[in-house]
Amino acid sequence: MKNFIKSAAFKALAAVALFLVGIMIYAASTGGVATIPATITGAIVTPLQSLGAGISNGFHNFIGIFTDSNTLKKENNKLQDEINHLRKNQVELDELRRMNEYYRQYLELKELNPDYKFADCRIIAVDTNNKYGNFTINVGMLSGVKVGQPVISPEGLVGKVYEVGMNYANVRTILDPATQVPAYVSRADSGGVTGGSLSLAKDGKMRLNYLPRNNGVAPGDYVITSGKGEIYPRQLQIGTVTEVISESDGLTMYAIIEPFADIRNLTNVFVITNFEGKSAE
Length: 281
Prior knowledge:
This protein is of the alpha+beta class. The protein has helices spanning 2-5, 8-30, 35-112, 198-201; strands at residues 117-126, 135-137, 150-153, 156-164, 169-173, 182-185, 190-195, 206-212, 222-225, 237-246, 252-259, 268-274. A 6-stranded antiparallel barrel has the order 1-2-5-4-3-12. It has a 6-stranded antiparallel beta barrel with strand order 6-7-8-11-10-9. β1 (117-126) and β2 (135-137) form a beta hairpin. The relative contact order is 0.11.
């Protein structure tokens, strides 16, 4: 008997008995034996469920990033379209304002000079090889434009036409030495002929030549057309005297003139196709 108690079989039976007693006690405290397998299963499954839930949430968040990105991209594109539309409207409004001002000035010129006939036009090209700002306009013979006709802006004389096509014309500005205009200083009633030079043209200026000595001309005086030669109407504004200088011969003087018209930044001009007192062609 003593040998059986000490044997391995007895020890195994005792362990099984203790295990069964433990199960019975646990079952009694929890209400059923089935909770043990459930507990074991839960211990195994729960971490897996947590891992699955984490992966699922991460996937949904990952997809959400792309969904939000696409939404933001669509909203951004919509806003950009609205900005582009507003910009276009602003450009059109600016152009309408500019044209409104342009035609207002045109009507003022007509009112001040009822004998003038105009061809209103737009500058379509500037001769980049020319140092005097010569340019091309979008009207020609079909609009009554001819060689030699004066070109003006609302501010003053700009130049004259030197070449004409059917629907275009080339204009030589008053900064060009080839454009010579009979003119005089309104306050001093002292006259001469305008001319240009390369050095002055760089600064947007020109000359009034052949002024007599003691002419009374001073900086700030206005220079206007005299009407001599019947090519340019009388009293077209040309510019302001900035300096009076003696010629090297000591017999005559010349004045430096800053034109009223901003020659190099013009966009629209007028050709005077006819006026009272114009020479017969």
